[in-house]
Specification:
This protein is mainly alpha-helical and 283 residues long. Helix content is 64%, strand content 6%. The protein has a 3-stranded mixed β-sheet with strand order 2-4-3, with no helix packed on it. It has a two-stranded antiparallel sheet with strand order 1-5. It is globular. The longest helix has 37 residues.
Amino acid sequence: MHWGKVVMHGLMLVFLFLTVAIFVNPLTDGIDNGTVRVAVKELIRIGVTVGLLWLYAKRFFKKANAYFRIQTPVKLKKLGIFVGLGLPFTVLSFYVLSQSVVFEKQDQLPFGTVLTFIIVSFITACSAGIIEEILFRGYLFKIIEEKWNVATAVFVTSFFFGALHLLTVNEQQLLDICLTLIAGTLVGTMFCLIVYKTGNVWNAVVVHILWNFFFSSKMVQFVLENGKNHSSLVLFQFKSDSVWITGGTFGIEASIPAVVMYVLTIVWLAFYKPKSKKDSITL
């Protein structure tokens, strides 16, 4: 495939991704309950986006999903679960054990509210995890790898993945932009290595979902100062407003502790050798 076609197809896939993200909002405007509206919106976004990406790939690439490392049935490596749980808990442990934050006791939430927070956080995490991994580490990674090489595919998709996250935060200073871009690129590199090493996008999906779930604003929230507007299951208040600790505008996912964990995971994955099929879990 000519490089111009690779660029064109890549831009079209991203265009479909962004278009659905924008136009799915009006579809749920009629739902009064904000929590239900978010859940329904994300479920629609998953179905429509994944469906359109699949149709586009089938029409123009004429390849099965397995070619893009989107395996069916889903065969997960224990690696995905290990990294998915280890990353967020290690970062959280650092903040707690280093006493960089203090736990803020909140009013006891009703069981229905707690359940709602968990369900909506999980659906939202699934939305980002499934869509972004299938797009970046599935279709885009493969077509770039096929045209050039693995290193180019890792760099391009990871950098673009990091840059895309700049759209989610307003009023960023230069340092915020740099931290977000660096953190996003490193996370993208980590996901690429997981997919490349295991040959399966769904392993990165698991890691992505678990990370987003635990750091959802309704599950575990980090704030500079406590207040009535902060509603989550667990609330931590920073002792310092240093951008290196808080992650700036983007949050702790762009903080130095999180970045260090991304780098350590990338180094470990670089030397990781997949084991036999016994290390897999089929869903």
